[in-house]
Amino acid sequence: MEGDGSDSLVTIKNIERELICPACKELFTHPLILPCQHSICHKCVKELLLMLDDSFNDVGSDNSNQSSPRLRLPSPSMDKIDRISRPGWKRNSLTPRTTTFPCPGCEHDVDLGERGINGLFRNFTLETIVERYRQAARAATAIMCDLCKPPPQESTKSCMDCSASYCNECFKIYHPWGTVKAQHEYVGPTTNFRPKILMCPEHETERINMYCELCRRPVCHLCKLGGNHSNHRVTTMSSAYKTLKEKLSKDIDYLIGKESQVKSQISELNLLMKETECNGERAKEEAITHFEKLFEILEERKSSVLKAIDASKKLRLDKFQTQMEEYQGLLENNGLVGYAQEVLKETDQSCFVQTAKQLHLRIQKATESLKSFRPAAQTSFEDYVVNTSKQTELLGELSFFSSGIDVPEINEEQSKVYNNALINWHHPEKDTADSYVLEYRKINRDEEMLSWNEIEVCGTSKVISDLESNCNYAFRVRAYKGSICSPCSRELILHTPPAPVFSFLFDEKCGYNNEHLLLNLKRDHVESRAGFNLLLAAERIQVGYYTSLDYIIGDVGITKGKHFWAFRVEPYSYLVKVGVASSDKLQEWLRTPRDAVSPRYEQDSGHDSGSEDTCFDSSQPFTLVTIGMKKFFIPKSPTSSNEPENRVLPMPTSIGVFLDYDKGKVGFYDMDHMKCLYERQVDCSHTMYPAFALMGSGGIQLEEPITAKYLEYQETM
């Protein structure tokens, strides 16, 4: 018996690697099974969701006013933790629902769905094994009785129904013969208590009795009848238990039967590791040798270039020095002038003429040079600028002689930046790479290159977060197949928005006209259907009738800071206005009825007089620009050209709005190039809201924040 106990202890201690949570790197505590079938501690899932939730919403909530036409208050951090675990927690515009995060085990993105953590099964089997490991590790540590008066006695058994441990005396007291408690299930001393019956997370009063072969998870009969598994193939729990246990036992027996082969392969792996160590060091030495040769060539070229520059500099300085000495001789009592003054003192005519003739020629030459001054040499060294652009590009692509794997290419059309950066790439040949490494770095305004950040990716896309606003970032990717690495792809440069992304949805209550506007359930897309109502009332339309704009605003206000949001205007839209709204003018506008048939309140009555523009600008609640018929119209300005060809631009695919509340400035951007198309001052003395208006047929889609997408797992059971 003692020998068996020792073997069991050794076996338990040898599996420690399987009992470590990939997130916290500690022994599992209440492990949950993720959709990818990996397990993770309950507290680790909460922390991951909370961390992602905070990083997504800090930007949208820290500098935002929660007072909208519907008052909403920010939740404290502890409430956030509870809200993540609470069933039925829904998304609102301030705190978007975060249920997607990368699994720490496989790095694939997993989505917990509507129920969040409550939709996950607790891994009781793993929890039991961890508990046995803990007991084996602390063999001498006894489990004390939970019911004893101090000092407690060592427990002798644990009741699974009461979830408590007892000594012999306490067990007899609390489980007397002839009572219901006497029928409780008891085991040896343990701290791991689990329910006798596994209940369904979706239907908490129903027990698990079936197994979904498609989703590879236990389900109850309600899940099959009308739930998410109604069209899935299911089997009985006993059948699934028998099938999986037979498969697992068969595989384990096979591995045990191959123990000698495994030991042989372990020895071979040890030899391969030593060989890899030696070959790696040899490769490093060869690489160092090649780089040292390059350094020698560069040093030689550097020395040659510097000598040429020094020689040219010395020659030019000598010429300037000679010219300067000649000009100094033109000063009175100096050089040539002083000598000429002495010659003039000669009274003998023959001697004077003999000397003065040559002197006069020199004086004339000096006089001409004085009239047309020309430096003896050039000061510019533009002919001596070293052009290293080609060499820099070649050095940037410097890689191994033959990698045997193609270079991946970044898909510029599918890569974009908003609240995060989404980078997509593809490989010339499918399934040629095992993994990829995505590199990115910030490019400073003085074009100083910072060090590259690296992220290992299993797929062909990645979301990069925590990028600074209003900065250029360079991205590149390289592929790995086994131990072989490809050269890096060409760099993609993306410019981040000028301010943190502001999160909001369309407000369906404040000023929303449900007869003219159609809002989807997610409240991120609005469509104008005013034309249909106009047709129904066609018999009442007379000459002079003017169609009015239908307004809709965001459901979150801004009272400080810098914010940026983006949207897409549907190409078929006739007339759309976008911008910001002031709360004080907005309330006044909504309280005062507007006569739809009067041109006095019509924003586009067809007149183009300055008085009309001034009158309307003072009365309207919005600061807007006009978009329509696939064009972007820049408003008239006294400081810029008002010619139509200068004011009408092609409509960008996606349009961004940048509001600097503190400086009272709003700008409109082309999201494709992150270029400001129009900017103006705006009165920010009150709460500001994102604002939109539509007339005729049209639609607006708010830009969806970039988040990690759920990956479906296609493995068969």
From TrEMBL:
Broad enzyme group: transferase
Residue ranges annotated for the Fibronectin type-III domain, each copy included: 407-499
Protein keywords: Coiled coil, Cytoplasm, Cytoplasmic vesicle, Cytoskeleton, Metal-binding, Repeat, Transferase, Ubl conjugation pathway, Zinc, Zinc-finger
A GO biological process held by the record: spindle organization
Pfam family, one: zf-RING_UBOX
Locations listed in the record: Cytoplasm, Cytoskeleton; Cytoplasmic vesicle, Secretory vesicle, Acrosome
Residue intervals of the COS domain: 344-401
Binding partners and assembly: Interacts with CENPH.
PROSITE patterns per the UniProt record, alphabetical: B302_SPRY, COS, FN3, ZF_BBOX, ZF_RING_1, ZF_RING_2
Domain B box-type stretches: 195-237
Catalytic activity, as annotated: S-ubiquitinyl-[E2 ubiquitin-conjugating enzyme]-L-cysteine + [acceptor protein]-L-lysine = [E2 ubiquitin-conjugating enzyme]-L-cysteine + N(6)-ubiquitinyl-[acceptor protein]-L-lysine
Domain annotation RING-type: ranges: 21-72
Gene from which the chain derives: TRIM36
Family note: Belongs to the TRIM/RBCC family.
Domain (B30.2/SPRY): residue spans on this chain: 484-709
Protein name: RING-type E3 ubiquitin transferase
Role played: E3 ubiquitin-protein ligase which mediates ubiquitination and subsequent proteasomal degradation of target proteins. Involved in chromosome segregation and cell cycle regulation. May play a role in the acrosome reaction and fertilization.
The enzyme's E.C. designation: 2.3.2.27
GO molecular function: ubiquitin protein ligase activity; zinc ion binding
Source domain of life: Eukaryota
One Gene Ontology cellular component: acrosomal vesicle
